[in-house]
Fold this sequence. Notes:
CATH superfamily: P-loop containing nucleotide triphosphate hydrolases
Strand order of the largest sheet: 1-5-4-2-3
CATH class: Alpha Beta
Strand content: 15-25%
Shape: globular
Largest sheet: 5 strands, parallel
Radius of gyration: 22 Å
CATH architecture: 3-Layer(aba) Sandwich
Number of domains: 1
Number of strands: 5
Amino acid sequence: MQFPQTLDLPQLPLFEAFLAQPAIPLLTQALDSPWLDEAEAFSEISLRGAANHCLNLLAPMLRELSEETDARWLTLIAPPGSLTQAWLRDAGLNRERILLLQPRGEQSALELTCEALRLGRSHTVVSWLQLDRSARARLAAAARQGGAQSLNVRLG
Length: 156
């Protein structure tokens, strides 16, 4: 048995037809969700392996961020010891646009990262922290407040 088809309407393959129907309600829900804002303000990358290899994978991303047209800083909070000024130079990063910050006294790296994000003097603040859900939410909120981007790097 054949069903009549109009020639004006394209026919979707079977799986696309099933997937296409709920996409509009899901997209509407996602746009109304505060989670979307958190995803835009906070990003995390996980790298595993030897420290040198991890830094070599991270170098192009940091290089791009250091060349950002935004007049604000790229701020690195408590980077690993292998990320030195010499490494920044050798990786081709614009060191004139980078701040390297270490927490002092009783201040934690998380607190310093939140403060740097809230101040808004950096377009991106990169941290090397082990984070739980509430810490991620704190970083996202601070980033939104300062109009910045938070990037956390987890080294395994």
